[in-house]
Amino acid sequence: MFETHDQWLESLEQPATLKCPKCGKDMEKVHFHRFVVDRCTGCKGLWLSAMDREYLSVVRDAETIDTGPRHVEDRSAKVKIDCPVCHTPMIRMVDHKQPHIWYESCPVCYGVFHDAGEFRDTKSHNIVDFFRDLFRQERV
Fold first, then answer.
1. pLDDT, mean of residues 45-74
2. Where are the domains of the chain?
3. Which residues contact 4 (CB under 8 A, 6 or more apart)?
4. Which pLDDT tens digit goes with each residue over 63-96?
5. CA distance 111 to 8
6. Beta carbons of 124 and 101 less than 8 angstroms apart
7. Taking the CB of residue 38, how many other CB atoms lie within 10 A of it?
8. Which pTM value belongs to this model?
């Protein structure tokens, strides 16, 4: 067990190179302002720590780190991936502002994985998204 919160945080330090939780390829470090996020060299998905996500969600032009084409996944398929940092099974989440965006979240370190295009989409909520989400069928 950890005696302090700092010891727990240190235990979650990321290895030099993370492996993508979706496709298993190496993830590259991407610098944006004072933050470093991990982007998959294969599928172009993004791994964001909880702090990175909070900061980048409100910073102008942060969507430029999401360079991959929009990934369309089968919503009926069960997604079982492990956190690339602490190797805990991740949970599929739905963005409450844009319910058409689904991503994976770690219940331990609170990091998130966005498929290519999802983070960019979260930054571009507009009136079309509002009406699409308003009339979209409920999920099962």
1. 87
2. 16-134
3. none
4. 999 998 887 777 777 778 999 999 999 999 988 8
5. 15
6. no
7. 25
8. 0.76
